[in-house]
Amino acid sequence: MSKRFFAAVSAGAFAALPFAIHAQAWPTKPVRIVNPTQPGGPSDIMARGVGQKLTEALGQSFVVDNRPGANGIIGVEIAARAQPDGYTLLAGTNGQLIANSAVFSKLPFDAVRDFAPITIVMASPFLLVVHPSLPAKTVTELVAVSKSRGNLSYSSFGPASIAHFGMELIMLKTGMRLTHVPYKGGAPSAAALVGGEVNASLDSVQNQLQFIRGNRVRALALAGSSRLKSLPDVPTLAEAGIAGAEIGGWYALLAPAGTPRAIISRIYDETQKAFKTSPELRERFESTGSELVLNTPEVFAARIRQEIAEYTKVARAANITVGQ
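User: That's the sequence. What structure does it adopt?
Assistant: Structure tokens below.
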């Protein structure tokens, strides 16, 4: 082989050396986790729980920075434009990254190009719930009531939210029609159902569990692959006869594209270790109806691409649009 070849290889190795050294020394200062939601929600709980464990493991503070607004777009853009040095992470959700990508023709970020996925920490299947005044105790009965009355409504977290997508998918599969009433967030959406302002909702287990247990709403079906320990009597949508409608929220860690692979791997490894060595952390999430995922960066990246394509199809079929 020529001297020129060896020189080129050596130059490449030396060019990569600073990144390897940087990754070994990381972190030498606090790390910011941008959370594009209000404090207190599932994404915030995930970010603070994992952030605390990373703080303990790596000796630097992992600080959650809540940046809500514009369907999560504000916070996601902040993270996308940050330096890819390992000191800014994103606590991202499928609502912010997938649903927004499916309906907005222009976004200040690209969910595939601008991020280095780390892992989906947890996922929470959604519940199809109705107000107790509605004479429907099964999904089949809800479909029948909606067709006979023709004036039922459902609440969601907002236009083009995962809840909006999910209910539209269920309606496409069953032929029922309910009027969409969007609210500004999960809490007001849940309150609207409890108060009887709307007839139904597709919502997270975290938002609805207390109301189900208090008999203030009725759970008809779970949009997950299997029943939950916390709600063993609630069937899945598949058991209720609606296949291919597994819907829920996932809550993940990502970094700006270009973040050194060694740092991505270290965050992933430490996150995995946190759940293996801290049963209380696992129990905290699972007690709310969430399921641990902890998929690899490669699997997570493929899932982002796949879900954007799937949600884009639903948006077109159901004519889900938002103002630009």
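The longest helix spans residues 3-25.
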